[in-house]
């Protein structure tokens, strides 16, 4: 059984923790957060995020929705120390590549030959069709639909309910606008 520490205690962290509690191969031993929350779903706070170094023998999952903060923390922790958490109702095709530190939410679907790079969030009821690429630290909010062969660039956030048509490449423009 993998001993795991969650980083974060907000709404996204509660959702991730709930999914992790279904996995018999993961034991969430606590969480790190800078807020005043002492416990979530029966799991105790172990300290502040700045105390990561104290837990160097553990694995982590960064349960923070902010893409840039998630990326910064992943670099500090080391990608090799991150684990992916998948809700048991998610459907992931056998030939999908999923990186380290990802979260795949309840009723999410990821179809054939999709690539999900490190620290990506595919939230509740999102659909990633075949041959899509979600690059590092991207984030699909709830109910996002990606048509086939869509490419989402690094650190892009796609708002809930968005539909991205087939073959579209989503990247930041010079004004930092994202769907």
Description:
This protein is mainly beta and 179 residues long. The chain folds into 2 domains: 2-81, Rossmann fold (3-Layer(aba) Sandwich), CATH 3.40.50; 84-179, Hexapeptide repeat proteins (UDP N-Acetylglucosamine Acyltransferase, domain 1, 3 Solenoid). The chain is 12% helix and 30% strand. It is built from 2 helices and 20 strands. β3 and β4 form a beta hairpin. It is globular, with a radius of gyration of 16 Å.
Radius of gyration: 16 Å
Shape: globular
Beta fraction of the residues? Answer: 25-35%
Low-confidence stretches: none
| Order of strands in the sheet with most strands | 3-4-2-1-5
| Share in helix | 10-25%
CATH class of the largest domain: Mainly Beta
- Overall number of structural domains: 2
How would a crystallographer describe the biggest sheet? 5 strands, mixed
| CATH H-tier superfamily of the largest domain | Hexapeptide repeat proteins
Class inferred from helices and paired strands: mainly beta
CATH architecture of the largest domain: 3 Solenoid
Reading the helices and strands in chain order gives: EHEEEEHEEEEEEEEEEEEEEE
What is the number of E strands? 20
> What is the straight-line distance between the termini?
39 Å
pLDDT averaged over residues: 95
- CATH overall fold name of the largest domain: UDP N-Acetylglucosamine Acyltransferase, domain 1
The number of helical elements comes to 2
């Amino acid at each position: 059984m993998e001993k795991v520490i969650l980083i974060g205690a907000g709404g996204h962290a509660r959702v991730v923790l709930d999914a992790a509690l279904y996995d018999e191969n993961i034991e969430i031993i606590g969480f790190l957060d800078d807020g005043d929350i002492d416990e979530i779903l029966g799991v105790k706070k172990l300290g502040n995020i700045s105390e990561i170094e104290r837990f160097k023998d553990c694995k982590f999952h960064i349960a923070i929705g902010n893409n840039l903060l998630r990326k910064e923390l992943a670099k500090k922790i080391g990608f090799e120390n991150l684990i992916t958490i998948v809700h048991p109702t998610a459907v992931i095709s056998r030939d999908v590549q999923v990186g380290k530190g990802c979260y795949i939410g309840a009723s999410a679907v990821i179809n054939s030959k999709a690539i999900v790079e490190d620290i990506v969030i595919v939230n509740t009821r999102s659909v990633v069709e075949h041959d899509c690429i979600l690059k590092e630290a991207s984030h699909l909010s709830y109910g996002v639909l990606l048509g086939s062969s869509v490419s989402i660039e690094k650190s892009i956030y796609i708002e809930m309910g968005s539909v991205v048509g087939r073959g579209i490449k989503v990247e930041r423009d010079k004004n930092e606008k994202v769907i």
